[in-house]
Amino acid sequence: VHQSKLDFFCKLGYGKQDICKVLENLGQEALEDDVLKELIRMGSKPQALESQAQPSPLKLVARGSCSTSPGSKWLGEDDSDSTGHLRPIVIDGSNVAMSHGNKEVFSCWGIQLAVDWFRERGHTYIKVFVPLWRKEPPRQDSPIADQHILEELEKQSILVYTPSRKVKGKRVVCYDDRYIVKVAYEKDGVIVSNDHYRDLQNENPEWKWFIEQRLLMYSFVSNRFMPPDDPLGRHGPTLNNFLSKKPVLPEPKWQPCPYGKKCTYGNKCKFYHPERPHQAQLSVADELRAKIKVPLSLGKEKKCNRSP
């Protein structure tokens, strides 16, 4: 009887010590209602309520990223990338599909190739934006290839359709580029597109800086998605650092001095000298003066120590 009551109240979330104390006071044959009243009177709370009562610690949110409160979650996002080191990815679906189809066919297979490339790198937050009218049957003026891929990506909560509707037989399409830039800016992520979004750059100065610094261009080489190794130019960050929240700085590579120990440049020499462990900042003349002063100072000390 004691074990059954102990198991029953443990399932409710109460601690074993509190339950044993109450059973000792009321007896082993006490009713469950009486035991529950006594636990409440003692102030004992289930573990679930205690965890809810504890206030959650405040978290700092980086500039340009969304808050982690439940009310701010949308588009089926998760917090898996918020604790990771990889940036969220926002793909311009129309740009990628038309680029893979040589600007003639909306190739959904190109979107799948881009998504798979980022998945293999470990990115968990990937969103693809495509206009809603691409869901309709293809027409001669807008052919679509592998349209079933859009349905599969939508089921995986990766593809997001931007709204569109028909008014008196005319299609009214919302500007999907605005969705792409806005979500990427709020998530502090990366935009995958070959479009420069010049109209949106002129519209918002913060978006202008973000597009210039976070736009990842690409190419398709024999059905292979290939972004550049230097997204911001030869003197910019590498692709790994560009897609990472915490870039890793390369170790400095020092070129040895061609003159070796015969170098007379001193601290002005820009090359590496292995004989100088800490790359002395003194010039050659200063080093010679320092060597001469040492024996002179020792000689003066000896003279001062001699008795008159």
TrEMBL record:
A zinc finger (C3H1-type) spans 251-276. GO terms for molecular function: hydrolase activity; mRNA binding; RNA endonuclease activity; zinc ion binding. GO terms for cellular component: cytoplasmic ribonucleoprotein granule; nucleus. Residues 251-276 form the C3H1-type domain. This is Putative ribonuclease ZC3H12D. Belongs to the ZC3H12 family. The keyword Transmembrane does not apply. Gene3D superfamilies: 3.40.50.11980. It comes from Balearica regulorum gibbericeps (East African grey crowned-crane). It comes from the Eukaryota. InterPro entries: Rege-1_UBA-like, RNase_Zc3h12_NYN, ZC3H12/N4BP1_RNase_Reg, Znf_CCCH.
